[in-house]
Structures
1.
Amino acid sequence: MSPYTAEFIGTALLILLGDGVVANVLLNRSKGQSAGWMVIATGWGLGGAVAIYAAAPFSGAHLNPAVTLGLFAIGKFEASKVLGYLFAQLAGAFAGAILVWLAYLPHWGETPDPAAKLGVFCTSPAMKHHRLNLITEIIGAFVLVLGVLAILSPQNMVPESGIGKGMGPLLIGVLIWSIGLSLGGPTGYAINPARDLGPRLAHYLLPIAGKGRSEWDYAWVPILGPIIGGILGAFFYKTFWPA
């Protein structure tokens, strides 16, 4: 499998399981309706682990432009692959959102709330203040990229520690779960530009009755914030965890 195909499939899995749990909680007449934030954060964490296991052997499982650009910024990823990875991630996120729409097809018409429908696909702040929302997304992505690099550092990924290479994706899933529980409240923790932009585009294009606006005026926040946070997190790791 090519690394670009792996990034596409892995990101599609991430969105299918991540947006899928949101649909399960938010859409009317779903068996998981009103299950709450703990279920959503857990679904994203476990979905992230599954997606990383699927893609890691072929691409390193970035599945996130913030990760790709952060690694590129500190010299850990080659420039020739950056655009290909970004395109594959965005396309995979769009495809994953379409699969969620299909999986819950009867439930869209049973759900009158446009905000709930939008929330299945992409993030929206609890309190809209773009600059402050941007800071929240920067912090979340900073923790994500720093955490990923720290978890996968040679000091941790050694057989003698009992944490072998195969544990990495599971631990990154725990990291995503932790970010959702601790930092997800203000903005819904996009922490991934493709995760937000691809499904937002799907929301805009798909025939969903009563879906309302796709809130493009906010869309730049979960794109720019994670990119800034991811690059800062990568440089922070490079500074304090030197090879």
2.
Amino acid sequence: MILYGIKTCTSVRKAVKFFKDNNIEFEFIDFKKEPVGKNKIEKWLSKTTIEKLFNSRGTKYRLLKLKELNLDKNGKKEWLAKENLIIKRPVIEYKDEIVVGFDEDEYKKVFL
């Protein structure tokens, strides 16, 4: 299992705590140190929607004024690859699926 995110993100911290509390091993990949590119984004989008992966509520989204660009699906995909901090966090690769964001009830169903 691989958990992607940034260490300072509250949702990532909750996910890390959940896994540690339940003795679930995972590898952590920090977007700031190891950015994911277009191929990884494409792979994730084959398993989830752009709406779920694209964080339109975060600080980076507001700072970049992306709302003003009125992005379509391809535009959002380009921005996800260019600026990983607008990816909703965490992104967890587990078995052949991905889980986006932190939802404790969903985590209990999927990981326990």
3.
Amino acid sequence: MIGQLTGKISHLGEKFLILDVSGVGYKVSATTETLQKSKLGTDLTLWTHLVVREDALDLYGFVDKTELDFFQLLISISGVGPKGALSILSLAPPETLRKAISSGNTSYLTQVSGIGRKIAEKIVLELRDKIGGIETENNSLEKDTEVIMALEALGYSNREARESLRKIPDEISETGAKIKEALKQLHK
């Protein structure tokens, strides 16, 4: 099993990157956030998970060990494959997903393409106990959902709304202030 790779980024794709490790290029699928932070020619260390299938060997890479652990929790659920798990992790950071799962917020998970209500409920049901003990902040999650809905109503895509929401400083907590800051981020 390949657990970690360190090398130079030789190519960036839409959903993957090629990491050159001592002359061997590894194609590694990664989250949207990891890909956005990556720059060609720079060194990068990724925690990896190798998925062996009959017709392929697929590598999934994460900058943070916490993301890898969450990925492995997600793929342990029947009906959630590695691509779905990667899409879920591209939706929001693991801490935000933990809060959504702990609070039973399935609507947050169904925003991922390919994750329907039943799978979202299954994720919540199976992972709630595994990630239990985490204090949730339902109000914050609801505000984030409101901000995303407001930005979508203004014509922005779900992806654009989420990316702008990630860039908002933590000290901004009011919904209206978050929307204003998200709009500033979108116009940069």
